[in-house]
Amino acid sequence: MSDGREISVRVSDITVVAKDIKRFRLQPISGALPLFSAGSHIVVSIFADDRRIRNPYSLTSVGDPSGYDISVLKTANSRGGSVFMHERVTKGTELVISQPVNLFPINLSGRKHILLAGGIGITPFITMAHQLASLNQPFQLHYGSRSKERGAYAESLKEAFPDRVFLYRDDEGTFIPIDALLRNQPLGTHLYVCGPEGMINAFLKAGLAAGWPKESLHAERFIAPSSGKPFSVKLVRSGRTIKVDEHQSILEAVEDAGVKAPYLCRGGACGQCETDVVSCDGEIVHSDNYLDPDVRKSGSKIMICVSRLNGFELALNL
Predict the structure, then answer these.
(1) Is residue 34 within 8 Å of 100, Cβ to Cβ?
(2) What is the pLDDT of residues 111-161, one digit of tens each?
(3) I need a surface site. Which of 6, 16, 69, 136 has the fewest CB within 10 A?
């Protein structure tokens, strides 16, 4: 994480769990892995040719603390990370991962928990469902996927929690009944959603419209940095000027230059990498879910993990 502590691991097993989704078992090369809480993720460093890509993945391991499991969806618009994991990582490959971090914890004060997953967004809910069951906490998991072959872990979750897991498939014309789920829930119910950006936004908006407190609505978003034209970043405090390549985030370019910058989620959600903009020769392309519209409009801040510049040079207070 941003304190620089990393863990060397070796891939001990790879399993295809759905179409375009593989599960990777990571074992420590030495020592033991830190324990983690349900909903945690790690950042995996991927050395793809001359680039180092860092991608966050939810931990899905249940019951065996000797290793970590992650699941990776091979995406068509990948910057290279998911393609590298699918096509070039094999058993025995050594990787570097971060310490586990939890930005999507269960609120254990809740009286009931409704988990809403779309596609690969099922991954944080695997550990959360098991934790809630172990604590005998009331919960429901509603899981939508495009088809049966793309519904990773759907059958195993249904088998583990037959009365609490509900499956929906686009090709069968069944969808998560969000409006019905938002009605008539006991006071103190918490709702958690993870999946495609449009689904998250729609479900949170529906929750607020139905009168749910903002504090009872939770979401996990991992936004990959977008690609774009290269540009320069002037690091005012460090006295350095660096280049951000086409498929590189500002944070990755800063790290490659040996300059430390704060971060946590690397997905535009946590706010840790919020950075002051000193000057800007171009238009900032904001891709985060953290800055409010007024701050974005002012151009005074940027989340360097996912946002970039459409222009020539950006000067940052780093």
Answers:
(1) yes
(2) 999 999 999 999 999 999 999 999 999 999 999 999 999 999 999 999 999
(3) 136
Q: Given a cut of 70, is residue 310 above it in pLDDT? A: yes
Residue 40 burial (10 A CB sphere; 0-12, 13-18, 19+): buried
Question: For residues 41 and 128, what is the distance between their CA atoms, to the nearest angstrom?
Answer: 12
DSSP string, the chain: -TT--EEEEEEEEEEEEETTEEEEEEEESSS-PPP--TT-EEEEEEEETTEEEEEEEE----S-TTSEEEEEE--TT--SHHHHHHHT--TT-EEEEEPPB-SS---TT-SEEEEEEEGGGGHHHHHHHHHHHHTT--EEEEEEESSGGG-TTHHHHHHHSTTTEEEEEGGGT----HHHHHSSPPTTEEEEEES-HHHHHHHHHHHHHTT--GGGEEEE--PPPPP---EEEEETTTTEEEEE-TT--HHHHHHHTT-----SSSSSSS-TTEEEEEEEEEEEE---SSS-HHHHHHT-EEETTT-EEEEEEEEE--
CA distance 304 to 17: 33
Do 61 and 41 meet the contact criterion of CB atoms below 8 Å apart?
no
Give the total residue count for the chain. Answer: 318
- Does the pLDDT value for residue 192 go beyond 60? yes
For the entire predicted model, the pTM comes to 0.84
Alpha carbons 307 and 178: distance in angstroms, whole number: 31
Interior/surface letters 129-152, b for 16+ CB within 10 angstroms, e for the rest: bbbbeeeeeebbbbbbbeeeebbb
Question: Minimal CA–CA distance to 29: which of 59, 56, 3, 68?
Answer: 68
